Amino acid sequence: MPMMAEHLFHILVGLTDTYMANHLKNDAAAGASAVGTVSFFLWFFGLVISSIGTGATALIARAKGARHRSLANGVCGQAITAAILIGLVVAIPTYLGSDYLISLTGLEGSAPQLAQSYLSMLCIAVPFCTLMFVANSCLRGAGDTLTPALSMIFVDLVNVFLTFSLTRGAFGFPEMGFKGIALGTTIAYISGGILLFGVLVAGRGGIRLHLHRLPPQWLTLKRILRIGIPSGVESLLLWLAQFAILHLINRMDVTNRVPSAHSNAIRIEAFSYMVGFAIATAAATMVGQSLGANDPRRATRSAYLCYAVGGGFMTFCGLLFILFSQPVSRWIAPDPVIASYTAQCLFITGFCQAGFASAIIFGGALRGAGDTLAVMILNLSSIFFIRFLGVVIVTQYLHGSLAAIWLVLSFELLCRGTFLYGRFLQGKWRHVKV
After folding, report:
1. What is the pLDDT of residues 76-100, one digit of tens each?
2. How many CA atoms lie within 13 A of 421 on its CB side?
3. Which residues span the domain enclosing 100?
4. What does pTM read for this prediction?
5. Cα dihedral 155, 158, 160, 165 in deg (nearest 10)
6. How many domains does the structure of the chain reveal?
7. CB under 8 A, 24+ apart: contacts of 395-404
């Protein structure tokens, strides 16, 4: 439940950014396209650090299940050190090469300039952002989902308040237009990194960050990376495939209406899949702790219970997307063309939410068990051979519409969910050594 609350506030942030961009006084379509494109870079920053977060969650969960507090604290210290270093390594070249990176997205018109200014400002917050992500992973591995949820809700509220105030010039703040969206996000992430560091040092959630644990200890880092690297590689390759798809979509329409609709649909669909990711985090923690306590039957029951909750919710959301796609799309974007494209995407994705839930939740359960290599292989096979190649065929050879692209995306999610559930049924994850 804390994770659900946290992710719902994440959705609020995304919708606020998208709504504000769609209602800018000048060039709203370009602003919405820029926000949607930069969200892919935010996703990238999270994926870069996911190898550390995944490894830390699995090891801390096993250590807590075995009542080995010293090991859990040691893993936490090494994970935070790695998070800060990786954040700096990613932020500096991204800032220096922001013009080139935005040019690769295929944005047209004034959208590239808006996206580049946003990305450059965001780089300041990247080390704080990576620290925040890994701190949350450590706390969740220890079984504490409440503390990171409350911390992230605070960050999201700061983000929403500053984005609205700086974009519109409300509450005595200067009216900055599109730059207000970027500045609000940057300040919020810096605040979040500082807050979560303090939370770990204070020792909340049954785990504590001791400063003497921060210098690199290669044996612990090796254990973290052995589990996390397959997940990190999988995530980065997934991002590359999605980025290529984004490039193809951005180039479909010089007026930026098609990429804007694509971004809007993803933001609205987040009401479904972000809750699925929240339940997947619970699945990873419960499976890891159950295996650490040598109780594989409890691990299995936990995974199925998580799918019953998360899959049920996502299936219900899919029904809502099918029934109410038109009014929701018109609310988020006043442009009737953008609203129509958005509604088509939502209607299509409504039919795949149960399969999407299977991919998210059983994938999370397998990662919590440390079975990250198998998850990587299955995810990448589905994403590249069905999703990416399907979109290339539809756009480059069949010259299909945005709706045709979303048909491919939805079919791939159904296939991926089937593959990961099949792996879970095999039961080999019960015997993975971490």
Report:
1. 888 898 888 888 988 999 999 999 9
2. 16
3. 2-431
4. 0.71
5. -160
6. 1
7. 395/248, 395/249, 395/252, 396/248, 402/249, 402/252, 402/258, 402/261, 402/262, 402/341, 402/344, 402/345, 403/341, 403/344, 403/345, 403/348
